From TrEMBL:
<keyword id="KW-0805">Transcription regulation</keyword>
<dbReference type="InterPro" id="IPR036390">
    <property type="entry name" value="WH_DNA-bd_sf"/>
</dbReference>
<dbReference type="Pfam" id="PF00156">
    <property type="entry name" value="Pribosyltran"/>
</dbReference>
<dbReference type="InterPro" id="IPR050118">
    <property type="entry name" value="Pur/Pyrimidine_PRTase"/>
</dbReference>
<keyword id="KW-0804">Transcription</keyword>
<feature type="domain" description="Bacterial purine repressor N-terminal">
    <location>
        <begin position="5"/>
        <end position="74"/>
    </location>
</feature>
<dbReference type="Pfam" id="PF09182">
    <property type="entry name" value="PuR_N"/>
</dbReference>
<dbReference type="InterPro" id="IPR036388">
    <property type="entry name" value="WH-like_DNA-bd_sf"/>
</dbReference>
<keyword id="KW-0238">DNA-binding</keyword>
<dbReference type="InterPro" id="IPR029057">
    <property type="entry name" value="PRTase-like"/>
</dbReference>
<comment type="similarity">
    <text>Belongs to the purine/pyrimidine phosphoribosyltransferase family. PurR subfamily.</text>
</comment>
<dbReference type="InterPro" id="IPR010078">
    <property type="entry name" value="PurR_Bsub"/>
</dbReference>
<dbReference type="InterPro" id="IPR015265">
    <property type="entry name" value="PuR_N"/>
</dbReference>
<dbReference type="GO" id="GO:0045892">
    <property type="term" value="P:negative regulation of DNA-templated transcription"/>
</dbReference>
<feature type="domain" description="Phosphoribosyltransferase">
    <location>
        <begin position="119"/>
        <end position="244"/>
    </location>
</feature>
<dbReference type="GO" id="GO:0045982">
    <property type="term" value="P:negative regulation of purine nucleobase metabolic process"/>
</dbReference>
<protein>
    <submittedName>
        <fullName>Pur operon repressor</fullName>
    </submittedName>
</protein>
Length: 275
């Protein structure tokens, strides 16, 4: 890499750190990259750390010792997260989102990379400090959110299939009950997709009674894997508490009333802001 001025080096270092969240990067990596002394690199990192933490972008951790270095941990302060979620609630409350049968149209929001990036960062913040090996979701509209969350955690994504694909090789399949319709569905996961005893963060775009997430929890049991946590973008209040199949989860938005007749929707911040 060509020799850079300090201002240029700071920009490149910042981008380098943002692209490698949760990776422990030795100072020698930067010293070799820029042809600079470690003392100069340390001064640069101190500046970046101040900006990251001052602007609420995340935390820059320093690890001492021969095997040490720096690690960038993306985080979002709750006041910033609340502002974002309130904006998301406003978008969800548009009456034209109501579909026949009282369903809610969300595909346009799930298709916005910048919006999913912020939502993924909030979910990643919710599980700060929790040991996680991989992020899991079912192959549906929640895939963008799962990838956004995994990117913030520096982790791979595992996709659970509704229908087994021959290209996946041998798979484990289970039946599960949809909590909202009490109907039986099937989901499967390739045996090669997940190592046994992995710690898994389950991510989903929408949860009503929790049947789909519950199915993924059961599927993980077949791999002797552990549920590290569950994060959902939107949860519905249209379920009695005794009917909800899942109680330990983090939600960003709680969907209240969806009145098809009056064309009215109510949405408000989820339980992320009360834990």
């Amino acid at each position: 890499m060509k020799k850079l001025k300090r201002s240029q080096r700071l920009v490149d270092m910042t981008q380098f750190l943002l692209e490698k969240p949760h990776d422990l990067l030795p100072l020698s990596t930067f010293a070799e990259r820029y042809g600079a002394a470690k003392s100069s690199i340390s001064e640069d990192l101190a500046i970046i750390k101040e900006v990251f933490e001052g602007e609420g972008m995340g935390e820059l951790q320093t690890h001492a010792g021969a095997a040490g270095g720096v690690k960038f941990i993306p985080r979002m302060p709750k006041e910033m997260a609340l502002s974002f979620i309130r904006g998301l609630c406003s978008q969800l409350e548009h009456s034209d989102r109501i579909l026949p049968g009282g369903y809610l149209y969300m595909s346009d929001l799930l298709g916005q990379p910048s919006l999913m990036e912020q939502a993924g960062k909030i979910i990643a913040t919710a599980f700060y400090g929790v040991p996680i090996d991989t992020v899991m979701t079912v192959e549906t509209k929640g895939i963008p959110l799962a990838y956004a969350t995994a990117a913030q955690l520096g982790l791979p994504v595992v996709l659970v299939r509704r229908d087994h694909k021959v290209t996946e090789g041998s798979a484990v399949s289970i039946n599960y009950v949809s909590g909202s319709h009490k109907s039986i569905h099937t989901m499967s996961l390739s045996r090669r997709a997940l190592k046994e005893k992995s710690r898994v963060l389950i991510v989903d775009d929408f949860m009503k009674a929790g049947g789909t997430v519950g199915g993924m929890v059961d599927l993980l049991g077949e791999f002797n894997a552990e549920v590290a946590g569950v994060g959902v973008l939107v949860e519905s209040d249209a379920v009695e508490s005794e009917e909800r199949l899942l109680h330990d989860y983090v939600s960003l938005v709680r969907l209240g009333e969806v009145d098809s007749k009056e064309r009215r929707i109510s949405a408000y911040p989820g339980n992320f802001f009360s834990v």
